[in-house]
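Page 42, continued from yesterday. The earlier attempt failed because a stray header line got pasted into the input along with the sequence. Redoing it now with the clean sequence only.
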Amino acid sequence: LEAQANVLDARTHALSMAIMTQVHVAYARYEHARRELDTAGEYRDTQREILTQIRAAATTNSVSEQSVIREEMNNLLAEAKYDIAHADLESAFASLYAAMGSDAFLGQDKYASTHALAKAVQEGLSPVSTELTRQQAMADFGIDDNWFEARSVR
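This time it went through. Structure tokens are written below.
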């Protein structure tokens, strides 16, 4: 009976660690995506400034039309990279939200209108801060720093 209790305790510990690992990995992915979005935004802003300068130089015939076209293409690529980084951030946030066991569509009719679903998502995400931390995620599961020490395999 004691061995069976130990097995159940080990299974509980393993499941808890698996959940915490999922949350930790999802949070790391979210933080990485957030930094990537910041970098893509800086690149996009810089590219916009370059394009503005090239267009100004083109009005004085200081640069060729080919240079303007090249910089406009670079600007479009910078915008696309920013959009991709933004989509990656949204995906990472959704993964973090799912890893924590949250469901923005809980109790929603799957045949509801797009407007109704959008409202449900907005209401479902409102309690979640965009500044999620590992400690907040752990607190949501009722876990503190001592939790790991208390369950460490000896």
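Notes: The helical segments are 2-59, 65-99, 114-125, 134-140, 145-150.
Reminder to self: strip header lines before submitting.
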